[in-house]
Design goal:
heterodimer, A: alpha/beta, Rossmann fold, two-stranded antiparallel ribbon, globular, B: 2 helices
Chain lengths: 233, 90
């Protein structure tokens, strides 16, 4: 499986993503500079974390108008998998591929720590290697990860299984104390209506080897590969 | 024949919608209270932008700034905007 890793000016998790996909998972990955417009030849797209365009104006607001984003929108509309991690999640929201927006953390502080996530929907292109309700641990590293959408949108997301992950405690309890940034209903990751676009604030690419302290992040990328394998002719 | 254009200055204010919680504003409000400023019931923090642009007239400038706000300057999910246009000739 061949992953495109989109690189904007200010992206910083591109190499971690490449390392996880190639060295840890054994799949192919190539960097795609934000000025490029062609994603043919790729099976999946990763929008990595970072501070694209310095996060000026709003996180992801400038990046969404990059030439490559037209191709990403087409790629997503064709039903192919797109994952946005951290800043990539913010870009997907600004681009209108995902509902809602990531606001400043409720406590106004940058959070760099491991969090627990409960798998809310294990029947997706990004979570099929996980058990429903299973708890995984991943790092977060953001100042603006406070997911917001109006109540009607949140209700619709929950009713249609589009909440992929929620922040929880080690036992899987979804509590206010386990919510690192004030996200509405502890939401850490959401899917688009078709289920082929995921945005999540935690960084799966940063916990993919025992030497890093865990391998929970691999399950996300492995899910994408598994789905591709089952779809292959 | 070239159409004469004029220079305008747009002052754009982007603020969070009133229905959206503003942690920055709340923190500033708390800081004001701790400094002894009584009676501050609410603080909302927003962005102020000054945009210099040329257009055939004020109506054209207004139309373009409106479009800028809709496309880029504000995120309609959480933000609202307002602006004024004034002549910046000379």
């Amino acid at each position: 499986m061949r992953f495109a890793i989109v690189v904007f000016p200010g992206t910083w998790s591109d190499r971690d993503c490449s390392h996880a996909i190639t060295d840890d998972l054994g799949e192919e990955a190539a960097y795609v500079w934000h000025r490029e417009r062609d994603l043919s030849g790729f099976d999946a797209v990763v929008l990595p974390g970072g501070f694209s365009y310095g996060d000026y104006l709003r996180c992801g607001a400038i990046a969404r108008f990059s030439p490559v984003m037209e191709a990403v929108v087409e790629f997503a509309k064709a039903g192919k998998p797109v994952i946005g991690i951290c800043n990539g999640f913010q870009v997907l929201c600004e681009a209108g591929l995902l509902p809602g927006v990531l606001m400043r953390n409720a406590d106004l502080r940058f959070h760099c720590e491991d969090v627990y996530l409960r798998t809310e929907n294990a029947n997706t292109a990004f979570t099929n290697a996980l058990m429903p309700g299973s708890v995984i641990r991943l790092p977060i590293s953001h100042g603006e990860g406070n997911y917001y959408a109006d109540a009607a949108t949140l209700d619709a997301l929950e009713a249609s299984g589009r909440v992929a992950f929620r922040y929880c405690d080690a036992e899987g309890g979804v509590t206010a104390a386990a919510n690192p940034n004030g996200s509405a209903r502890n939401i850490a990751g959401v899917l688009n209506e078709a289920g082929n676009v995921l945005g999540m604030m935690p960084h799966p690419e940063r916990l993919t080897e025992p030497v890093l302290g865990g391998v929970d992040g691999l399950a996300i990328f492995r899910s994408m590969v598994q789905l591709a394998a089952t779809k292959a002719p | 024949m070239a159409v004469a254009t004029k220079t305008f200055l747009a002052r754009v204010e982007v603020t969070l919608k009133l229905t959206v919680n503003d942690p920055q504003g709340n923190t500033v409000k708390g800081a004001l209270a701790s400094l002894g400023f009584d009676g501050v019931s609410a603080v909302r923090v927003g962005k102020h932008m000054e945009i210099r642009l040329t257009a055939e007239g004020a109506a054209e400038a207004e139309r373009r700034v409106e479009e800028m706000c809709r496309q880029l300057l504000a995120n309609p999910v959480i933000e609202q905007y307002r602006f004024t246009i004034e002549s910046a000739e000379g």
